[in-house]
Design a protein that fits this description.
Chain A: It holds the Pfam family AAA_31. The complex is a heterodimer of chains A (about 270) and B (about 230). Chain A is α/β, with parallel strands linked by helices and about 270 residues long. Helices cover about 40% and strands about 15% of the residues of chain A. In chain A, helix 1 crosses helix 11. The longest helix of chain A has 15 residues. Chain B has two domains: about 90 residues, Transcription Regulator spoIIAA; about 120 residues, Pectate Lyase C-like. Chain B is elongated, with a radius of gyration of 25 Å. Chain B contains five helices and 15 strands. Classes of the chains: A alpha/beta (about 270), B alpha/beta (about 230). Chains A and B meet through helix 7 of A and loops of B.
């Protein structure tokens, strides 16, 4: 029996979908059988980040309304033999066509066949959010270290704490920019974790390569040399129960020589 | 018979009106009848007499609302008499519970998060933070062992004596009874530890170091004897 983990944040644009894609990929790389579910009905994009958008035939709404079987709607990721699947959202409906009961049933039908069912939640706290958390056993909150995002994360944690079927949520702080940490411009990692008072499961540095990877239709997690990829893989290992220490994110070395040194010392 | 009437309903004059003592061992209908007789036997009021307030003391008898109304009706039949207060030695469990709730400290370990409103009838002891956009509301005092960064409303039913104390006092708003105190635009990074808020005589909310409380609210001390 697998676990259903919902990836949520409240605020939009903090990296829920990127996190879902990369965690799913990282877990599959560790040999787990994973299904990603995009619940952002009407504004899907998990399929794009996974590079699977041209292969959508059926979607989430077709499944819950019985127009097709679950396995018909699932898209297999070709990087793996039989480990990573995506259940896409429709682009031409809205979030109210699905209800919580349908989501609960769908996810409990899928859990026996997978190690992890990862649910990508839409932004906001309306029906789409309620649907996404309905079937989940665990929740991961994604936030950036900015006040608006942290405030929304706080609100979401409050809503999740009321749901008895979900374990206490865990936190990922995304897009940490090392050079700002020392200038007191951003809330630092400890500040965010202290404020939200939930367990921190990972910290993801900010890296342009994430955008490059998204445009290449391949999650960054496939690139073994990237620090973002490493951070996601570490989170995946923590989800599996291993204890992996957090890698410190300091400021980038400033001078040319130190950059050069760093360049050669990578790997 | 005459003697018993005197025992069941006793009228006492005080400087602000009458005090009616109703015996609690006879039946209610008997009591009503005797009350009526007793009152009609009294002095006939004139048109321009001042009205007289009456306090009704019912002893150990419990009266429900209908019965209270009936007694008031009988008394109000005599013009110029009006009931200001019904006093009883007994309470129902519900009333007792409400009374207890309003006078007890509710202890919770929780972070009050954005969008959440936490309300208690009596005093609140919160072991945790109140985050921005979170609200705590108490009928009595609010004590926060943590950071107050949201809104705290003490004495929300109109208790001006209520206070708010927090380990770290950086609230968005403080409210006591009907008064609101807005936060400064920017809190300094340090300071604001162990502060309290209370209302002064001019109904302004004052924020001060915790040690002044002893002076302004001596009744908060419930320790008897000791140091």
């Amino acid at each position: 029996m697998g676990e259903a983990i919902v990836i949520t944040s409240g605020k939009g644009g903090v990296g829920k979908t990127t996190t879902s894609a990369n965690l799913g990929t990282s877990l599959a790389l560790l040999g787990k059988k994973v299904c990603l579910i995009d619940t952002d009905i009407g504004l899907r994009n998990l399929d794009v980040i996974m590079g699977l958008e041209n292969r959508i035939i059926y979607d989430l709404v077709d499944v819950v309304e019985g127009r097709c079987k679950i396995h018909q709607a699932l898209i297999k990721d070709k990087h793996f033999e039989d480990l990573l699947y995506l259940l896409p959202a429709p682009q031409n409906s809205d979030k109210t066509v699905v209800n919580e009961e349908q989501m609960r049933k769908l996810i409990s039908d899928m859990k026996p066949d997978y190690d992890y069912v990862i649910i990508d939640c839409p932004a906001g706290i309306e029906q789409g959010f309620r649907n996404a958390i309905a079937g989940a056993d665990k929740a991961i909150i994604v936030t950036t270290a900015e006040r608006p995002a942290v405030r929304d994360a706080d609100r979401i944690i409050g809503l999740l704490e009321k749901e008895e079927h979900i374990e206490p949520p865990q936190l990922i702080i995304n897009r940490i920019r090392g050079h700002l940490l020392h200038e007191d411009e951003e809330m630092d990692i400890d500040g965010v974790a202290d404020f939200l008072k939930i367990d921190l499961i990972g910290v993801i540095p900010d890296d342009d390569q994430v955008i490059v990877a998204a445009n290449k239709k391949e999650p960054i997690a496939y690139n073994p040399d990237n620090r973002v990829s490493l951070a996601y893989r570490n989170i995946a290992r923590r989800i599996l129960g291993e204890s992996v220490p957090l890698t410190p994110i300091g400021s980038e070395p400033k001078g040319f020589m130190s950059k050069l040194k760093k360049f050669f010392s990578v790997r | 018979m005459n003697k018993r009437i005197q025992q069941n309903v006793m009228i006492k004059g005080t400087k602000d009106g009458f005090m009616l003592h109703l015996d609690d061992s006879c039946s209610f209908s008997e009591l009503l009848k005797e009350l009526e007789v007793k009152l009609s036997a009294n002095y006939q009021f004139q048109e321009n007499d001042p009205s007289i307030s009456v306090k009704v003391h019912t002893g150990n008898r419990y009266l429900d609302e209908q019965q209270e109304e009936k007694i008031k009706e009988v008394i109000h039949k005599k013009k110029k008499l009006f009931v200001v207060e019904m006093i009883s030695n007994v309470l129902t469990k519900d009333e007792a519970k409400r009374w207890k709730d309003e006078n007890q400290v509710t202890t919770v370990t929780k972070v009050i998060r954005s969008g959440q409103v936490f309300e208690v009838p009596g005093d609140l002891l919160l072991i945790g933070d109140v985050n921005p956009d979170g609200t705590v509301r108490a009928g009595g005092n609010i004590y926060i062992m943590g950071q107050l960064k949201g809104i705290a409303h003490a004495g929300y039913k109109g208790n001006n004596e209520a206070i708010i104390a927090a380990s770290v006092m950086k609230p968005a708003q403080l409210r006591i009874a009907g008064q609101v105190n807005l936060s400064p635009d920017q809190y300094s990074k340090w300071g604001h530890d162990l502060e309290c808020a209370f209302m002064d005589e001019e109904e302004n909310i004052i924020i001060e170091k915790l040690q002044v409380l002893k002076k302004y609210r001596p009744n908060l001390n419930r320790l008897e004897g000791g140091l």
